[in-house]
Amino acid sequence: MSDNNEPTDTCPECGAPAVNGMNCFEQLGWLIGWEQRDPDLAALHFVTVASYNLQHAAQFQPDVLAQLREAFIAHLDRGLPASEIRRRMGSAYAGSARVLRPESERRPVLRRWPMTIADVYLPDQPDGAADRVRAWAASIRAELEREQ
Ligand SMILES: [Zn+2]
Q1: Residue 117's domain spans which residues?
Q2: What percent of the chain has pLDDT over 70?
Q3: 108 Cβ contact list (under 8 Å, min separation 6)
Q4: What is the mean pLDDT of the chain?
Q5: How close is the Cα of 100 to the center of ligand 1, in Å?
Q6: Model confidence band, residue 16 (pLDDT cutoffs 50, 70, 90)
Q7: Would you call 19 helix, strand, or coil by DSSP?
Q8: Domain-embedded: residue 6
Q9: What's the CA-to-centroid distance between 11 and ligand 1, angstroms?
């Protein structure tokens, strides 16, 4: 596989390499699995999922994505509690808007990020995962700042 120049084993959206044959979503699944043994990481659950989702934006309806970005920034900058975010976003989802775009309407655009899930989920290295999530989130926050 190493001499394959086709970009088949990198993510078409966030650019992360596959790790041990696992795509981004599978890496996220393993990272979340570590939360059971790592309270520090578990406390960052919203940050972990939001970071992943912001780097895989094509699946979301535009208004949902805008809300997620706003909540992510409010959480990082002002400490808006994740429980409050869930309450607010939950009530929005209970309304009319669908959360996900239909598969046929998704148009992933490759974007280069300073860090991706592949920098955070390091196989068999759960130690320091919470610090890596914080660094990942901070790097995304900085990228969002530059867009504004
Ligand atoms: Zn990805």
Answers
A1: 11-147
A2: 89
A3: 12, 13, 56, 58
A4: 90
A5: 17
A6: very high
A7: strand
A8: no
A9: 4
Residue 4 belongs to some domain of the structure: no
- What's the gap in Å between 12 CA and the centre of ligand 1? 7
- For the chain, what is the domain count? 1
How sure is the predictor about 69, in pLDDT bands with cuts at 50, 70 and 90?
A: very high
Assess if residue 71 is contained within a domain: yes
> Residue 139 is encoded by which pair of tokens?
């790097």
Bridge partners of residue 22, in order along the sequence:
19
Ligand 1 centroid distance, CA of 107 (Å): 13
Asked if residue 2 is part of any domain, the answer here is no
Is 85:71 a contact under the CB 8 Å cutoff?
yes
Ligand 1 center to 148 CA (angstroms) = 23
User: Does the pLDDT of residue 5 top 60, yes or no?
Assistant: no
**Looking at residue 99, what is its pLDDT?**
85
The number of residues in the chain equals: 148
137 CB-near residues (< 8 Å, 6+ apart): 44, 47, 50, 51, 72, 76
